[in-house]
Amino acid sequence: MSTTLNKYPSFDLSEIIPENAFVYKIYQPLKPVKTGDSVTGFSLNAGYKRLRRFYNGAEIHGSVLSDELSQKPLVISFYSKYWREAGLRQLAQLNAMQNDIRANGGNLLIISAENDENLSEIAWQNNLSLSFYHDADNEVALKFSVYSEGDPTWSRFSGIDVNVPLPATYVIGLSKQIVYDNVERDYTDKLLPGGIISTVYGASLIKNNRRSA
């Protein structure tokens, strides 16, 4: 009499540990802050490794205090290398207008969750003279509601497979109120220097008027 061997081991259904196939997450659409909103919880860490400055593509060393940045109207722009060519265009636009921002009494700071050698390469290859702030764990992006785990950017944009902040540029007045916003939801918008620079100038005038009062 022949015996048929079962090559698969037997198992007991009771040994199976049930797991949820899907973890339900509540959808929370991004609602970026806008002009008129206050960002009272916004602050910058003055740690040396958080702030990096470049001049004509070369990194320059020396401390940059967050107090120095907050004493003038501040232009901040969220950037990520994962935006590729569109992100480089954004940096080029900001690089072209930064002298006018300073001449009109403001400061400019690029907010990026990346702080690797790739940043040095980008600055060198594009001859950038910009200051970057390492936004660890997207702390600043979360305060401005341009980043969320509940509404990841890769679900909105083709070609993006990493959750990164929306490309957004703001001008923050001395009272930590948003006086200008530009949030690109489809990355076809172009930063208009006139609006940013005139807003910086107006916010700077308010500061000077308060000092002279």
What is the topology?
Layout: E1 51-55, E2 58-60, H1 66-70, E3 74-79, H2 84-103, E4 107-112, H3 117-125, E5 131-134, H4 139-143, E6 168-172, E7 178-183, H5 193-212
Parallel strand pairs: 3-4, 4-5
Antiparallel strand pairs: 1-2, 1-5, 3-6, 6-7
Describe the 3D structure.
A 7-stranded mixed sheet has the order 2-1-5-4-3-6-7. Helix 2 packs parallel to helix 5. With 213 residues, the protein is of the alpha/beta class. It has 5 helices and 7 strands, in the order E-E-H-E-H-E-H-E-H-E-E-H. The chain has a single domain, classed as Glutaredoxin. The radius of gyration is 23 Å and the shape is globular.
Give the overall form. globular
Radius of gyration: 23 Å
Oligomer: single chain
Sheet with the most strands?
7 strands, mixed
Task: Report the end-to-end length measured between terminal Cα atoms.
Answer: 109 Å
In CATH, the topology is named: Glutaredoxin
- CATH homologous superfamily? Glutaredoxin
CATH C-level name: Alpha Beta
Helical region count? 5
Could you name the key traits of this structure?
7 strands; alpha/beta; 7-stranded mixed sheet; 16% strand; 5 helices; 213 residues; globular; single chain; Glutaredoxin
In short:
This protein is α/β, with parallel strands linked by helices.
